């Protein structure tokens, strides 16, 4: 999905919500355990209940990788179940020396090799240009670079100052030379409030993937106030607050209710920029 198509989906659905399929077998409703692949069944029902309210699904691969072959199969099958009109994110946080990154890129971008054809992968920028380039070399695909994350550990490195800039500002400034806003997004935690102003100084046009509303308590209002640009420029993720709204048989219905609340807030924010 390209930038224009993302913007069209935002306008059409009046939403910039990504639902995070951080599906933990220990947290899903017990009645699903009778299925051959309970994680897949859970994901299917969540997707069916929410797809008109979100523009994206973010699959955090850790929740699948930890379950070995069955987990990886659930990842592939969930990928295949994602609606065509949603932007797919493999949240794998990869990045290694060039030839290894090429393999990581193939794992998510080359369906002939892996059966998966995600629109994007999250990438850790710490190893620099040659570790990110292999993801950018795939035509029509996106790399989503970690910039200023939502967790307390973001202070350890990302917010250290060198000269007139913090480390995350160096990351954005430098990586902007590798690709433009049609291929590169940045992760910025919803808990960063006015920190979005610093991000927008260096990335005025890029879409930002913003996790941290819902369970981590980030404010959607602040994210929009400080981070929105004329194209919206935001894909805001919520995982646990939506997918685990109920542990009962009504889990999909309750997930829809939670997604709807977020979507309605997003619609109000989009009206402010006349979307
Ligand atoms: O890259 C991410 O998606 C990410 C970056 C970040 O700074 N903070 C963060 O929470 N995430 C991911 O976003 C999701 C947040 O989940 P909830 O807190 O349950 O909404 C998880 O999949 C995290 O791994």
UniProtKB/TrEMBL annotation:
- Has UniProt tagged this entry with the keyword Lyase? yes
Q: Catalytic activity annotated for this protein? A: orotidine 5'-phosphate + H(+) = UMP + CO2
Instruction: Quote the EC number.
Output: 4.1.1.23
- Gene Ontology molecular function: orotidine-5'-phosphate decarboxylase activity
Keyword terms of this UniProt record: Decarboxylase, Lyase, Pyrimidine biosynthesis
Pfam families reported for this sequence: OMPdecase
- Domain Orotidine 5'-phosphate decarboxylase positions: 16-255
Q: Which InterPro entries match?
A: Aldolase_TIM, OMPdecase_type-2, OMPdeCOase_dom, RibuloseP-bd_barrel
Q: Give yes or no: UniProt keyword Iron.
A: no
Which pathway does this polypeptide act in? Pyrimidine metabolism; UMP biosynthesis via de novo pathway; UMP from orotate: step 2/2
- Enzyme class, first EC level, given as a word: lyase
PANTHER family tied to this protein: OROTIDINE 5'-PHOSPHATE DECARBOXYLASE (PTHR43375:SF1)
**In which family does this protein belong, per the annotation?**
Belongs to the OMP decarboxylase family. Type 2 subfamily.
Q: What is this protein called?
A: Orotidine-5'-phosphate decarboxylase
Species of the source: Pseudopedobacter beijingensis
């Amino acid at each position: 999905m390209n930038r224009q198509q993302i913007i069209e989906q935002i306008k059409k659905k009046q939403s910039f919500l990504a639902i995070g399929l951080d599906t933990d077998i220990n947290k899903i409703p017990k009645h699903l355990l009778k299925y051959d692949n309970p994680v897949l069944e859970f994901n299917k029902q969540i997707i069916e209940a929410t797809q008109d309210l979100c523009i994206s699904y973010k699959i955090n691969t850790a929740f699948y990788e930890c379950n070995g072959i069955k987990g990886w199969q659930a990842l592939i099958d969930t990928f295949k179940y994602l609606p065509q009109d949603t932007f797919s994110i493999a949240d794998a946080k990869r990045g290694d020396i060039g030839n290894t990154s090429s393999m990581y890129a193939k794992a998510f971008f080359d369906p002939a090799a892996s059966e998966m054809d995600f629109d994007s992968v999250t990438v850790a920028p710490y190893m620099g240009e040659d570790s990110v380039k292999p993801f950018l070399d795939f035509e029509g695909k996106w790399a989503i670079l970690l910039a200023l994350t939502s967790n307390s550990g973001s202070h350890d490195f990302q917010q250290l100052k060198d000269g007139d800039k913090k480390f995350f500002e160096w990351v954005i400034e430098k990586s902007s030379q590798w690709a433009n806003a049609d291929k590169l997004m940045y992760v910025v935690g919803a808990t960063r409030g006015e920190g979005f102003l610093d991000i927008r100084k260096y990335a005025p046009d890029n879409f930002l993937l913003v996790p941290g509303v819902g369970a981590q308590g980030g404010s959607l209002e602040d994210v929009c106030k400080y981070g929105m640009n004329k194209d919206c420029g935001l894909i805001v993720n919520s995982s646990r607050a939506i997918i685990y709204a109920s542990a009962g048989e009504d889990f999909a219905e309750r997930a829809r209710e939670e997604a709807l609340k977020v979507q309605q807030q997003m619609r109000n924010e989009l009206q402010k920029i006349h979307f």
